[in-house]
Amino acid sequence: MFSGFEETPPSGVGGLGLYIHIPFCKQACHYCDFHFSTSLKKKSTLVDALCQELILRKDEIPGSLQTIYFGGGTPSLLEAEELAQIFKTIDAHFEVSANPEITLEANPDDLTGAKLKMLAASRTNRLSIGVQSFFEEDLKLMNRAHNATEAVQCLELAKQYFDNISIDLIYGMPDMSDARWQKNLDKALALEIPHISSYALTVEPNTALQKFIEKGVVKPVDDAVAQRHFEILIERMQKAGFENYEFSNFGKPGYYSQNNTAYWTGKSYLGIGPSAHSYDGATRSWNINNNPKYIKAIQSGELPIERETLSMTDKYNEYVMTGLRTIWGISLIKIEESFGLKYKEYALQQAQKHIQAHLLFVDQDRILVTQKGKFLSDGLASDLFLINLS
Ligand code: SF4
After folding, report:
1. Whose CA is nearest to atom 3 of ligand 1?
2. Separation of alpha carbons 123 and 331, rounded Å
3. Is the CB of 208 under 6 A from ligand 1?
4. Are 167 and 197 in contact (CB under 8 A)?
5. Per-residue pLDDT reduced to its tens digit, 207-225
6. Probe ligand 1: pick from 30, 31, 33, 34, max atoms within 8 Å of CB?
């Protein structure tokens, strides 16, 4: 039963969500540690398994789906028939709200006119496109499958089919000057994309990028550069009328990601596919991150899942962590109602020194991060974390 802590942000967006992981990519980006395979041989068998998992877990969502999100990997590698097969299974076994947000992550090199036409004819109504950069040197360093020309062309084309488009951009790359980062933002703004997700390049363990840096082939990532790029990002986006509604996310009014907002505000979601995570308000679970083992388990009617039950303290810490990254901050009333008076008093007490340093502020019952504190929001959140409160 879903009984988790919930919070509706002022805009009223968000609700029960379905996430479907498509674990295939054409090639491995140097910085990526997501789960995917570059062999597409088992794609249709895996789609069959996804549909089988949907059926096995149909009772885990107790209401109508507000959002459906195809993530990966590279969901734009799906063919029309595969996407139709998944939607048919969803319709047969889940209740879907009248106007759901249906997002599909896509890579620029897949977005031909024919593919966009197919996606627009499916029920997809939002594209999240992995542009990452409009510059050839950045795309080469990242080993992206697309080039700078395709990055622009796909957006011009996508706008003919979709109104609700988001792009990902990465900053803080070795050798990325402030000027080049600004030009990246200028290009995105000139193309009038209504939503941008922007992340600092992080060096994940066991990625090609980490090995190149260790060998001295690529310069290390510099935190000071990432902070400068973040400040440029905030300034440019605010000037252009975007709301920085979550640390890494910027949307024009009406274009916030409903799927991600639901996640940040503690709503329940069901994750289908290898490596997908789920949350039901009490437990967090995750599927095995191995395609053959996933397929084998599902074919024999088993769910290849591990679960952990979240303690009250875990839930409080997650609320603080995700909440402080958003424009909704954390609500002291909610903390008291959901976790108890001791938690509220602890949060306020821990926040005091940061309030005095103008990194946090209190507005009505909410603690929020100031403009000055934004880049430090993860560290500020961890200062409000509890190890254990008895
Ligand atoms: S396309 Fe996305 S999921 Fe695939 S390797 Fe690149 S960053 Fe990772």
Report:
1. 73
2. 36
3. no
4. yes
5. 999 999 999 999 999 999 9
6. 34
